[in-house]
């Protein structure tokens, strides 16, 4: 019985040591994350300060963009008129005769393979 108590105490001590090591590692990682978040927060404040300076210019650009967007349908219509005015009409397709072989009528060679020579054909 005494040996069982000793092994239980050793087991509990090992468990507590393992948990302490785990908490030490996790604490270090959380400390690094907190440092990175502080740096990010400072960068965000700097960007916000820079953005406040250009905000009036952005409002002016958006207003100009609205004027241009309002004129786009008119410009599109004018462009369509220009394209229709300069596009040539398709030419009427010429009627072509069926293609004929350049060497005249050809004789089938299938008959030669079986030794048949039709009447009126000379070799």
* SS strand fraction: under 5%
| Order of secondary-structure elements | HH
User: How far apart, in Å, are the first and last alpha carbons?
Assistant: 117 Å
Mean pLDDT: 84
Number of helices: 2
Give the proportion of residues in helices. Answer: over 70%
Q: Unreliable segments (pLDDT under 50, ≥5 consecutive)?
A: none
- Biggest β-sheet description: none
Q: What structural class is derived from the secondary structure elements?
A: mainly alpha
Principal-axes geometry comes out as flat
Transmembrane segments: 6-25
Region (Disordered): 94-123
Keywords: Membrane, Transmembrane, Transmembrane helix
Summarize the structure in words.
Residues 94-123 are annotated as: Disordered. The structure is a single chain. The protein has 123 residues and is mainly alpha-helical. The chain has a domain at 2-83. Helix content is 73%, strand content 0%. The longest helix is centred in the middle third of the chain and has 85 residues, at 2-86. The chain is flat. It starts with a helix and ends in a 9-residue tail after the last helix.
Question: What attributes does this structure have?
Answer:
123 residues; mainly alpha; 2 helices; transmembrane; membrane; transmembrane helix
Concise synopsis of the structure shown:
The chain is an all-alpha fold. Helix content is 73%, strand content 0%.
